Every structure is written in structure tokens, then in C-alpha cells.
From TrEMBL:
The lineage of its organism: Eukaryota, Fungi, Dikarya, Ascomycota, Pezizomycotina. The keyword Disulfide bond applies. Keywords: Disulfide bond, Endonuclease, Hydrolase, Nuclease, Signal. Residues 245-271 are annotated as: Disordered. Its EC number is 4.6.1.19. This is ribonuclease T2. It comes from Aspergillus keveii. Residues 260-271 have a biased composition (Polar residues).
Amino acid sequence: MGFKTIASTGMLALSATHFASSVVADAPTCPNDTPLSCSTSTEEASCCFNTPGGSLLLTQFWDYDPATGPSDSWTIHGLWPDNCDGTYEEFCDESREYSNITSILQDQGRTELLSYMTKYWKDYSGDDESFWEHEWNKHGTCINTIEPDCYTDYTPQEEVGDYLQKTVDLFKTLNTYKAFADAGIKPSSSKTYTLSEIHDALAAIHDDFAPYVGCDGDYLNEAWYFYYVRGNLITGQYEPSEKLTQSNCPESGIKYMPKSNGQESTCPNRR
């Protein structure tokens, strides 16, 4: 199993400058001058160029009532390809929509990944499996650089495990809870924060690019970190980028609530 070689002999595979990705056996060898995704509209889609979904978003949740995931961590929402302008495609390949993510990972021997997902990639209603299926089927199938033709000796569902692993790897580099804590922003049922304070705290872990943050009214509940990628989604070089979507949070009076075990649900819209 592995990716096809794309570049001519002598070209070196791109390594991550801002994010050290997990190396896949026989990773694609892309030309050093491969354009950064979203940097040009003339480059054709290939196993080395993400398009039309050239903006990649690592998205996180803060579900607090009822609480989802550890009390001292945000949780994974997904990894989404957007069309460089805030729009996106969805459910791009019905033939690769699956309803057995757990089995796929077990069959691939990715037990460590599965264990991590059961702790940090949580569904607010408790149905983690359906949540993972939704994220792969809606978003993962729209990433052109991990289509089956980009692999050598392709094994069915191989790209599913790679997509989920990449999502987790990126999530591990973006500790939203710690970034807030380092800036003095801590969950509180009484204190409020400004949008500027929140943006500054999170930009500090994303090369000074503030992510999109989402609110349910005054209550903070989402963060989307934007990237462009040079090369393949799995092995390419990730470059933090400016957000393409403006926050729906108010400029001030934002509440960052502690996680609790209350009965009132404050579930944000699932994309």
C-alpha cells in the first residue's frame, strides 16, 4: 500500500515546515515548485494539488452542557476542504460512503487511532460512529488528493484511515484549551471575553492567523483553523492561513462556559 509517485526522478518529497505530518509508506513525491493550494486557479487537480477544496479546515467543538469529551480539552469536529472562498462541496463520492468506520480502522490495525478518537472525537448525542461516518462521507470524499487513484496497490478504505489519522494529527498540534489558558481565558459561568481577546489567544498557536470562532448566541462553541497545503493532503506541507469565514460571535460579552453535566442542551449546528 502507498501513494503513487508523481514527480520526476530526483525530486524530493515535501516535508512539513509548520506541521510534521505522519509519513505514509511510499508517500507521493511532489515537485518542489508545486503551487500552494488556493494560490492559483490555473493548476489542474492532481494527487499533488488540492482543488477545488484547497482550503483545509481543522475544526473543533466546545460542547459544555451536557459536557462532551474531557473537561480540559476541546474536541474534534472534522477536517474540511473549502473552495478557497468559504464555500464547499459535500458528499462527493457516493460509492465511498461508509457506515462502518470502527471496523475499517480495526481492520487496518489502527487501534491507537480509534482509542484516541473515542476520547477526543465525540458526538454530543453519544453516537460517535455516526459522527465519524458523517464527517468522512460529507467532507473526506471531497478531498481529491486522497482519491483511490492516488495510491499504489490501493486497498479499499485505505484513504479513510489516512484522512482520520491526519485529522487527529492536526488536532494534536492545536491545543485550543491550553492556548486560552495561557492567555488567561478560562471557562467561567460569570466572566466574559471579547472577540479580540479570543482571536489573539488562538492566533498565538496558528502562526498569528486567528481562526474562525463560532458562538451559539453569546456562548463560545467552535473554532476552525484554516490551512493551505503544498502537495498531498496526507504528506504535504501545511501552511496556516487567514480565515475565510467571519465569526458569528459578538464583539464582547462572549461566554466560555465550563463543561458540566446539566440537562439543557446547547448543541451547535453540525456541518
